[in-house]
Structure prediction request, 182 residues.
Amino acid sequence: MGKTKLKDGDRKLSADGKRQIYEVYDEWEHADIDRDEQKAGLKRRAKRWRDMELEEIRIKKMEELAIKKVEKVKELATRDPNELEKAWLRCDYVLSHIMDKNAYDFMETARINDPELYKKLYRIFMSRHMMENIGLYIDYFDKGGISPIIVTYGDVIKTYRKIKGIKSTITIKHKNEEELEL
Prediction:
């Protein structure tokens, strides 16, 4: 049986049975590097391999999570909403047509961050008359009807401040004087 000569980077089993990477040590090539520096280089290389393997595992997990998320979204999209959800969607549709974009975005942010505030704003901007005739509004907008922007961003902010009890103030300060509020 002939012995196979190991090349630089080949793996072999050590005496204790663990796998090791075989490195060829040429005294002339590495005359200025001592043994400790070589070991440090091997450790850095092993760390890079571990980092690459961990990165592959992380990427696989992220792909699995993305696939699960897409499946969940598809499931929610194919599911029929119940009556309460349908009513909210109808009202939301009308709100999106009677508010300007910034005002509607503010309402969406309020829905996520502060549901109680959203409910109060919603009750103010969706009047009883609109709720009673919501079907007419939806038919009108579905047929391409355009409404003038009834609710502006300024109206929503003004109402928000009124609900929160925030009063606007103007503060003036001159050099070497105290602040003056108007």
Remarks:
- Helices lie at 35-78, 83-98, 101-113, 115-125, 128-132, 134-142, 153-164.
- Residues 81-171 form one domain.
- The chain has seven helices and four strands.
